[in-house]
Write a structure and sequence with these properties.
mainly alpha, 0% strand, 82% helix, Monooxygenase
Length: 89
Amino acid sequence: MNVDIFGYFAAILTTAAFLPQLIKTLKTKRADDVSLTTLIMFIIGVLSWIIYGYKISSKPILIANLVTIILNVSILISKVYFSKISNKQ
């Protein structure tokens, strides 16, 4: 059995876990309940995983974290954008 199967399985689950938050944020146009500090810390951690995955040539780590960073940067951008809109009203 190829051990990468576990890596891909973990990658799918942990990456997909952010989809509900992104969808909710985009639907409600609100992200007040999302911690800015947590998002920033998480994004820095994911960047570190990307560097690590690249250095050890691990496709599961790279793919999962590249998708995860896209989702989380999207949440971060939405949080900043929607908070600016709500502050103007």
